[in-house]
Amino acid sequence: MKRPARVRALFALVVIAVSVYIAVTVPVRLGLDLRGGTQIVLETRSSPTTEADGEATDRTLEVLRGRVDALGVAEPTIVRSGENRIIVELPGVQDPRKAADVLGRTAQLSVHPVLGAATESDKPKDKGERILADESGERLRLGAARLTGQDVEGAEAQFDQQSGAGWHVTVDFEDDKGWAELTGGAACHPAGDPQRRIAIVLDDKVISSPQVDPSVSCNVGITGGSTQITGSFSSDEARELALLVEGGALPVPVETVEQRTVGPTLGAEAIEASAWAAVIGTALTAVFILVVYRLLGFLATLALACYGLISYAALAALGATLTLPGLAGFVLAIGMAVDANVLVFERAREEYGRRSRPSSRSALTAGFKGAFSAIADSNVTTLIAAVLLFLLASGPVKGFGVTLGIGVLASVISALVVTRVLAEFAVARRWVHRRPRITGLASIGRVRAYLTRRDPQLMRRPRRWLAVSALVLVVAGAGIAVRGLNFGVEFTGGRLIEYSTGTSVDPDRARAALADAGFPQAVVQSSGDNRLTVRTEELSNAEAVEVADAVAEIGGGAEKVRDELIGPSLGDELRRNALIALGLALGAQLLYLAFRFRWMFGTAAVATLAHDVVILTGVFAWLGKPIDGVFLAALLTVIGYSVNDSVVVFDRVRELWAKDRKAPLAQSTNRAILQTVPRTVNTGIGVVFILAALAVLGGDSLTDFALALLIGMLVGTYSSVLTASPLAIELSAYGGDGGGGRGRGRGRGHDGSGPAQSGAGQRAGRAGATSQGK
């Protein structure tokens, strides 16, 4: 074994060993959409006295952390996102009302002396004075705050068993001097006088205003720095009040801009469905590779298993959260790993057929060398989409970007390192060398054999293909113009709640029931067996309860399995970021392709991407499917796949053109297409297995995702061959970069003949294409 082979083998062994260790010792953290729970996104707002900058957000996060810990939720997560957003994840919490109320309250605690009673017409006389109603509704004039929440050392809810007074909250102050002065001043007034009271205010509401006990001396006050807040508290109310008081005041107000709740049933179903999709899709893909590539197909299947191990270990090592779209991206990246292997094997088949004394070992080495540039370019363009998803998206879509990026890197290691080590070891065996057909390289395959016999001239009239693409583009665009886009709540703001009902409910009946309950604008859809999805404008948690009661009444009970609340400001931001991500994806890929290829190839590829985006969006518009974050993830994945196919074709064009600079671009392009079609067919079949498994077995939550990818893959495969290539030919003619294609006559085909060639020249051109395809 030569030194490079030993280095690759050692590297593969180390990567696999480390991956096994991480996979066994470090668990992957599941997102709330897989394990159930509530996610709340809070946004800090500036107050008259404090700006909501990064420092204020950090202080707010620490206060919220104390409140979350006091809620008693197992394994909560609270992190800062950006300058002024805080993401709180509460696993197992299915009713977000209490959590949202506790987290969202500013909890501005202050203690005031009472200056006397007040009437409705009274107004504060001095700076710092306030007029508020006490617990019984009596209006009191309060002096400036003497103590605030920052002076609180601790608070505890207690039950008074001796007196039977019920629950109260004991508050301890850090400095007992201030409390003694405040109570000592109140004790100087006679019993029954309002000025003998102390007012404890929480968020502009008097929660307790007790009188100082007669035993307290004037100007002496209550020492020890402790007091009790009494009232008709239940145990939950007393604990919540103690939590707010002890947790302290938020430095700045916060607003709930996003709230998601997923029931554990939906999470379990999603995990099971995705797991089955992964198993069945991977099994079908493995069988297909075994049939087509035999021994090398078996080794590639082992490499795919290593790919799955490496991807899982990378997710665990990075501490990434595996979400539902991320799980789908994990399954989907299996198809990308297949593509890299197919590229290598098809190039090896070509090299085997070209050699007068073929050898599986030398053909395989040439296959890896020849396929490297196409694999590198196609994976870099997909990584561009993944990076943009991570940088610009949020929530589950960002998780998809992380998973997709990890999957791309793992697929490269799997194909170029693990597969190569296994394949080179296998073909070097003497018994394999004596039986070359067992490797799968000695046969050119049925697709290549058919194309060699037929030798179709696809690029004879490229404008016909462009006309077909333009027609499809117009039909899809008409869907956007006529039907409009059904933006999900992620892009519009509002609330989407999915219920599992006891009996099947007709959406029209549910719509009427919700209208009677005061929600006439609610959009109701059936989302599966005994499933209803209700989409409305932004609802409060109390209004959401009314919606649930209305659905439960007509559905024989209703269990909430999904709840998404998106504020209008966040919806606008997500929609804007989606457009920015799409524009940057196209622009970044144009720059990369223009750098790696000629300008005409880059322009043709990016124009084809825009073509695919419009068609996929138009199809979803005609079908009335939602345009949401999951669709955005699918759309950017389609962009990666489409440019992947275009890069493979253009890479072959570049290679053929470098060998024969005098050949017309149309002729080189036609030969490149015929040589890469076997790879396109075999990769497409492998990806279809994965996506079909997702669509059939993935459940309602993954159906639209898989549908978008299936449509996008079909459109992208067609456009990369029959839109990007003809467009590049046309651009080369008008841009003066057509090589041997310059000077073609008007109205003549692009088959490589040129205006001066005879029929014999055309036949010679075809013969050359045929010999290259063998």
Automatic annotation (TrEMBL):
It comes from the Bacteria. Residues 255-422, 548-731 form the Protein export membrane protein SecD/SecF C-terminal domain. It comes from Streptomyces fimbriatus. Residues 136-252 form the SecDF P1 head subdomain domain. Residues 58-114 form the Protein translocase subunit SecDF P1 domain. The keyword Transport applies. The chain crosses the membrane at residues 273-293, 298-320, 326-345, 366-392, 404-427, 465-485, 578-595, 602-623, 629-650, 681-699, 705-724. This is Multifunctional fusion protein. Part of the Sec protein translocase complex. Interacts with the SecYEG preprotein conducting channel. SecDF uses the proton motive force (PMF) to complete protein translocation after the ATP-dependent function of SecA. The lineage of its organism: Bacteria, Bacillati, Actinomycetota, Actinomycetes, Kitasatosporales. Residues 753-774 have a biased composition (Low complexity).
